[in-house]
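Section 5.1 Outputs to date
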Amino acid sequence: MVTRMILSNLIDRAMETSTFSVTLADATRPDVPLSYVNPAFETLTGYTAGDALGRNCRFLQGPETEAASVHAISNAIREARSVTTTLLNYRKNGTKFWNRFQLSPVKSEEGNIIAYLGVQIDMTHDLSISAIETERQKMEALGRLAGGVAHEINNALQPIRLWGDMLDGMIPSLPDSLQSDARICVDGIREHSVFARDVVERILAFGRRAKDQSEPADLVVRVEDAVGFSRSLLPGGTTITTEHAKPEDGVQPQISVDRTRFIQVFTNLVINASDAMDGRGRVHIASRIRNVDGVEAGTLGVAAGRYAAITVADTGPGIPPEIRDDIFDPFYTTKSGGTGLGLFTVQGIMRTWGGAITLKPSVGSGTVFEILIPLHTEGTA
């Protein structure tokens, strides 16, 4: 028969060896501070027992922690009941993790709540995999839909372009007083037909998912090549500067990318930056090599490892916080006459290469995008 003392020792040992983070918060003290954390908590959060004890567990929260999850926990404590929720928490080093948090009141023999038992489970990897699969299915469905719609639009454009050419041939037979206006109309038909055709081609590209013709090339050479092409498309008031970190081992790193698509990435980002600055400002492009650890990799949906990190920063007004979650959605645009496919295209290309694009926090005005591309190693395609 297991005695009460032996059982107590077993419980203590179980909590110390558990792979789940376990905490106890003292409900008899103001602000319900932590009175115990097990080693798994220290491993999960990076905070030692000395860092955590005596503090309310809200110190794990941060700017992106959802208020609804926090309110669910507060309501459960106020109503003296258990709660299970998932919320975004922050480790001591600032990295984020999705916490499956279970909170239960602990009562004394008299029925008074004396503590709260908390169990934290890191769900970051599982949620990332689920999100990636959902996104993949969504993109496949979008590709099929877009391909069908684009073919229909393309069929409708054919006679419009043909009629524009026919009207152009008829202009010389019109009275001189009408020829100028007729020319403006025909030019308008052609201009908008060309614009519509370009949009259709870009939509069809999503539907086809054409094979990427990637080949290894020096990072700096590839970036400067793309920047040179992009410069030719910008108004005179927009300047581009570049900066490349020197490799630690003196060997120029390589990336394996499709040159045309790489240029397309920079063209989209640079033109967006120029538009945001009304054609007057600076776009600064910098490249370096950095490591992506397992935690960040799970958040970004990429493999952990070494990446070429390329930032594209402008001196424009920046992107308002309320639309930052929407900018990579297909057909979302804030520009008059825009298609909303630019950043969506860039994101799709990055995923094809096993990389990612993110909007980075910036101080003051301006927008900073970072693209991550896996470094090419010998023996890989």
